[in-house]
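The protein record minuted underneath.
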Amino acid sequence: MQTIKLANGITISYQDKGKKSAPTIILIMGLGAQMTIWPDELYYGLVKNGFRVIRFDNRDVGLSSQLDKLGNPSLFRAWVSKRLPSYANTPYNLEDMAGDVLALMAGLKIKKAHLVGASMGGMIAQIIAAKHKNKVLSLTSIMSSSSHSSLFSSNLNVLLKLAQRPKKSNREDAILYNVKMNRLIGSPAYPTDDLTLHQNAVRSIDRAYNPAGIKRQLAAITASGDRRHTMKNIKAHTLVIHGTNDPIIPVSGGRNTAALIKRSKLKVIDGMGHDFPTPLMTKMTKWISKHAKKADKKRLDKKRKKQADIKCINASLSS
């Protein structure tokens, strides 16, 4: 793992594998999730398929900057702020987190990248693709949506259970909560056994644990609101992946995302929840690789055609 201090003052912990000359894929993780949640099968599979692949901890999670100085935001005020701007007091929003990705690219001297975002990470990737088109080679949005309403309007019972975090930073309580959370959001068709859930929880909690940071990220999602009007500006070739049994963001969120983006392809996975089941990682790696390579080929073909047209015009002018 490496760290870099961005121009905006945020320190980001990241992993960078693959040839520096290869097309770059940047993996953007979701709410409260460390970069280690990206399965190694997917991460190293993409590297093996010829990409330079970067995964990183978002601000306020993992080993990146913990912004405790920004306080403990009110989720109610974050929700109200989208309707009554005078109430706005959220520490940051998703556009700020999108700025972190752009600053990371600048710091690593990456001009353009294929963006792959999961859940909240998909929302961040959507913002970059809509507002910074020249930085995006392709977009893959996994288990994400175009609006926070998809997060809060359905499956409220599951969300309320997930909100019951341990009040104190007790290691054992945090591990038990992590196991409970991943059992709730997991894929019914691809269940993870309890031993693996516990081992994953131990690794995650021992690496980093900051409930207040997760709350600030959730406030960022809430305050950022609806992106449907901006998503229509996305021109990048887009792949949308969603599970039929997602208990956090229903599959309708994925369908809506695909419907809003003109050049998009939707892959719906039966029995998948809001996680990355190991049996699906070979298939998902293949989909993302194929999607990115196809986007690269189309971009190269377009560039060659443009160069040929210029050469043809110059030849006509000189004759």
